[in-house]
Design brief:
Strand content of chain A: 15-25%
Structural class of chain B: mainly alpha
Radius of gyration of chain A: 21 Å
Helix content of chain B: 55-70%
Oligomer: heterodimer
Strand order of the largest sheet of chain B: 1-2
Number of strands of chain A: 3
Shape of chain B: globular
Order of helices and strands of chain B: HHHHHHHHHHEEHHH
Number of helices of chain A: 2
Radius of gyration of chain B: 21 Å
CATH class of chain A: Alpha Beta
Strand content of chain B: under 5%
Largest sheet of chain B: 2 strands, antiparallel
Number of strands of chain B: 2
Number of domains of chain A: 1
Number of helices of chain B: 13
Order of helices and strands of chain A: EEHEH
């Protein structure tokens, strides 16, 4: 049977599409170490000029928020519409604002 | 490449699940929301997805074999470079899909073992042999064409990681289909012998391509639930009809015919009528009786066994370097 300890660890892959953009998560690869993870990420996710830079991070190192707490974490922002510029009505003749 | 769900009926899950959670889940899916890995999901949804995504991944990997067969014999350097790129893409597709399945709590090795032991299925189409160069054209055009037809709706499938993998795959499949059609086009315009070769390839690949959409709707027990869960977005027969309607004119445009005497344009329906697929053959191939089923699994087993020392050596090397680094700190 398979022994999970013997599988190469999982790495999350982030690609910078082009200069000026931030790295974006695209998927994951298995690799024995970081160098191999970069090589696998290159072969798996950038075969068609999809990027100019790669990041790989061991998946086990990622801490994620709990989807069960999404309401508690994110909903309070819903009633704070005054954080958005459109909340304020400014007469049309006032320019450059 | 794509595989339809080839397993039998979903066994009713005996696990009791929180009715409120199930209802909330069903409502989210009905509302076309995406389900993400850490979200709560019914056990049957998870299991169905693991089966479908891993079968799909296996199909991509096994699908490398029939085409890999022709890499060293491609007629020129251009075709060889294209075929190499295409086969590499299929490997990549397998990897995107394995990674998507892993987010559901199954390991890569477990999936590989399920394939090699025969427990997991893969698309029946790959158990047919590639006898001539024209088969490479027919596979790209028909098999990848059928795959695209199956996969485009899956870009909106309810499970986020699967949907995202499908978006990448669909983008790449379009190249596969066009390069295949181009091969057929050149052969069809070539010498009489080349044209015969092209016709022979479509004659052999047409029906197996129609089988790729899976059994007819009235014999597809999982379709209803999969449609409700948005794991599947169109039925087997709907997709098969679409494929026939799109592909027949493509064949005629290059002077090839489709090997179906019952094929006829039906003005009233605005669609082609076509003959019945030989379902006996389909089920035989599903059971593992395809012409080259044994060779396919032997090749995968050999690759897995021959690679064992590499996987082991890389792992031990990485562990040693990691512990040396800790010791040095």
């Amino acid at each position: 049977m398979s022994d999970p300890k013997k599988e190469w660890p999982l790495w999350e892959v982030f690609v910078r599409g082009k200069g000026g953009l931030s790295h974006r998560h695209v998927g994951s690869v298995h690799a024995a170490d970081a160098k191999m993870a970069i090589e696998h990420a290159r072969d798996t996710y950038t075969r068609r000029l999809e990027g100019v830079s790669l990041w790989v991070v061991p998946s086990a190192q990622i801490t994620a928020s709990d989807p069960g707490e999404a309401a508690a974490l994110f909903e309070p922002a819903e009633d704070k519409v005054y954080r958005h510029p459109t909340f304020y009505s400014i007469p049309d003749h006032i320019k450059h604002i | 490449m794509y595989t339809t769900d080839l397993s039998g009926k979903n066994k009713a899950e005996a696990v009791s699940e929180d009715a409120a959670k199930v209802a909330a889940f069903e409502a989210r899916v009905a509302n076309d929301e995406f389900i993400e890995p850490k979200d709560w999901m019914p056990e049957a949804y998870r299991k169905t997805l693991i089966r479908q995504i891993s079968q799909h991944a296996h199909s991509e990997i096994v699908g490398m074999l029939p085409e890999g067969n022709w890499i060293t014999r491609a007629p020129n350097l251009r075709r060889k470079a294209i075929l190499l790129a295409k086969v590499q893409d299929e490997g990549g597709h397998g990897l995107y899909l394995y990674a998507a399945a892993e987010t559901l709590g199954v390991s890569r090795d477990e999936m590989t073992e399920a394939l090699l032991s025969g427990k997991a299925k893969y698309s029946t189409i790959f158990n047919y042999p590639t006898l001539t160069w024209a088969d490479i054209g027919a596979i790209g055009w028909l098999v990848d064409g059928a795959a695209i037809m199956n996969q485009v709706p899956l870009q909106r499938t309810s499970y986020g990681p699967y949907a995202r993998a499908m978006v990448r795959i669909c983008k790449e499949e379009s190249f596969h289909q066009r390069q295949g059609y181009e091969i057929m086009m050149h052969l069809a315009q070539g010498t009489p012998e080349q044209k015969r070769m092209a016709q022979d390839a479509i004659d052999r690949w047409w029906w197996p391509s129609l089988m790729m959409f899976g059994p007819p709707d009235d014999k597809s027990p999982n379709t209803e639930q999969s449609m409700r869960w948005r794991i599947k977005r169109e039925t087997n027969d709907e997709l098969r009809q679409k494929f026939v309607d799109i592909t027949v004119p493509q064949a005629h445009a290059i002077g090839l015919s489709v090997p179906d005497p019952a094929l006829k344009w039906n003005e009233a329906r605005g669609a082609h009528d076509f003959g019945e697929v030989d379902w006996e053959e389909f089920y035989a191939v599903v059971r593992g009786e395809g012409p080259v089923a044994k060779e396919r699994m032997q090749a995968r087993q050999k690759a897995w066994d021959d690679g064992a020392w590499v996987r082991e050596a890389a792992r031990v090397h990485a562990e040693k370097r990691a512990s040396a680094k800790i010791a040095a700190e």
